[in-house]
Amino acid sequence: MPRPARFAHVVLQTFDLKRLVDWYTYVFDLEVYAESPRAVIGSYDEEHHRFAFTQFPGEKVESFFNPLKHVAYAYDTLGDLMAQYKHMKARGYHPVESVNHGPTLSLYYADPDGNGVEFFVDRFATMEESKAFMASPAFQKNLFGYYFDPEKALADFEQGVPAEKVWEYDQEAADRHLEAQKAKAAAAAPTS
């Protein structure tokens, strides 16, 4: 079966087209190529469009459910990821979660409609190294990783701490996170 050549674009539907387009324009430095009262199309790179936004008719219903968890965007370096973190923070946008997953260091945001947007940097130089880590017993035991403090990561990075040290995977932190999640699930489980 042939595989796609590349990831091309995301189309998001919204009840507030202007607000969503403004957010993505700021976050991605989006260049809008086409616009109508019901749709906006744009890109941040060589692709003819990376995003399209369409207007839902009517008012948002409170019970509206958005099944999209997140869309992820990779940065080439920790410096680039930290620059994006500072860019977002300057506008008052803060990560919903900051996670060292093992293969990646990831910052998760919510756009104005609650769609998840992940910005990450790979910790390993090659995809083969990332896949090897993901096949390791440590990762298989805890597929999530653990939360990290992006302010500490930024401060360390700006003080010249090497990227390899800033994003170093802390197995003890991962184990603590896993145990805390197990305890939380046990506490929430119905008792008979």
Automatic annotation (TrEMBL):
Alphabetized UniProt keyword annotations: Dioxygenase, Oxidoreductase
**What species was this sequence derived from?**
Sphingopyxis panaciterrulae
**InterPro entries under this entry?**
Glyas_Bleomycin-R_OHBP_Dase, Glyas_Fos-R_dOase_dom, VOC_core
Q: Which residues form the VOC domain?
A: 6-122
Identification of the protein by name: Catechol-2,3-dioxygenase
Question: Molecular function (GO) terms listed?
Answer: dioxygenase activity
